[in-house]
Amino acid sequence: MQKNNRKGGDDKDKRRGGGDDRRDNRSRRSGNNRDHHTGNRPGGGGPKGTPGSGGLLLSGAPLTEDQLMMELPKKKFTGRCRLFVGNLTNDTTEVELKEMFAPHGDISECYISGKGFAFLRMDTRAHAESAKETIDGKTLHGRPVRVRFAVHGAALKIKELPTSVSNEMLYHAFSAFGEVERAVHIVDEKGKPTGEGIVEFERKPSAQEALNQIRERVFLMTANSRPLTVEPLEPRDEDDGLAERMIPRSPALMKEREIGPRFPPSNSFEYIYGKKWKELYEMERKKREELEAELSEARRRLELDMEVAYQDYQAQMLREDLQRRQQELERLEEQRRMRAQNGSRGPSSFPGFGGIDRSGPPMQGGPGVPPPGPPQGMPGGPNDPNIVQGVHKLLQMFKNDVPNRQFQQQPNPGFFPPGPSVPGRGPMPPPLMGGPGPAFQMPFQGGPPPQGDFRPPEKRMRR
Question: Where is this region: Disordered (predicted)?
Fold first, then answer.
């Protein structure tokens, strides 16, 4: 009897394993076949760019509103639809189990270990619950069948979730490590987020990759700099609990159950030590509250320090940006100054006039040589009689006209009008500036004509 009870008590441990390895191998083979036909990469977990990655790149890009509002796919034959069937005989076949569970829904997996238990995977959670409620306790080959939900081997418990993280956001974030079956941010009875969540992957390697990556590195969900923590999900059977038939029979159990529920009388042995146990419970509760208060205060201080440090970090970044901009402005100003200096020092034939040629045409023969006239024998040459007569007429007109001029106002002494025009030679140069002597008196100032040896070159030549 004890042997049978121990065997029955081992069913709970078998729910955790049994066909897990074989199932994972089959799913891995089937998954690889699907990927081979569809052209997708085999799911394996890990951010994109690392070995075995099967999801999106975790680059910090925010999720769009369309992505978050999109309805998540409702998957069938997930790990939550997997049932553990125990207390079977060794001669139970797969056909018999499928006939028993087929009325409640489709079956995608039926694994019999040959050691008194089996695993089945239904299409939906509702169908699995219906089959569990109906078949649990039924007799098969003279034994009552025990049906429980199998432990999900690819589920993780997430902690330190920000309140702004929804189920959809959690789903998309952890899809970077592999195919996700379900992602839930747990809330309390008032709908307030608790900061804890559950993520169930399709395969164990994906869950293990997410577990390793988040433990070794800093994984953030939002602008909140508080990193997430993750641990394997330890399932708790809060629906079925511990049934009497699941407890193994033993002498210690029988001895403990010799006395039933009661309130011991005052001043009895049980009462005195019961009080001491309650005092210890109270001390533990107070210690936990004090420790939680200290931890909460440490969290608050760390958040304040982080906020101040972040402001300092932003200020430092602004200072560095301003310094870079100032250096760029100085560099541009230096380039402009160099261009201006190079332009002022450019090649010039007349440096005294800022590079601008303000003189007449270049003279032939060098300085002191009169400008060349027309060739000999051509009109306008020095022996042309018309030119000589024209010069005499101009001189006579000049002598007769100058004494009769009367200027109403004194002209600007700095202005020198050009001399009389000579046919074929252009205007004569203006008189030179000089002292107050008679040789330097200007004709237009009302004085007598100059009495110097001022004669045209032709006159001198004729003498």
Answer: 1-60, 335-388, 404-463
Counting DSSP H helices and E strands in the chain, the numbers are 12, 12
Strands (E), 160-219: 180-187, 193-201
pLDDT digits 0-9 by tens, 213-235: 999 999 999 988 889 999 999 88
Burial of 136 (0-12, 13-18, 19+ CB in 10 A): middle
| Distance in angstroms between the alpha carbons of the first and the last residue of the chain | 166
Q: Please state the φ and ψ torsions of residue 300, each to the nearest 5 degrees.
A: -65, -45
Q: Which of 126, 158, 131 is nearest to 146 (CA)?
A: 131
Per-residue burial over 93-122, b = 16 or more CB atoms within 10 Å of its CB, e = otherwise = eeeebeebbeebbebebbbbeeebbbbbbb
3-state secondary structure 409-457: CCCCCCCCCCCCEECCCEECCCCCCCCCCHHHCCHHHCCCCCCCCCCCH
Helix or strand or coil: residue 399? helix
pTM for the full predicted model: 0.56
> CA 445, CA 406: separation in Å to the nearest integer?
8
Percent of the chain scored above 70 by pLDDT?
63
Alpha carbon 242 to chain centroid, angstroms:
51
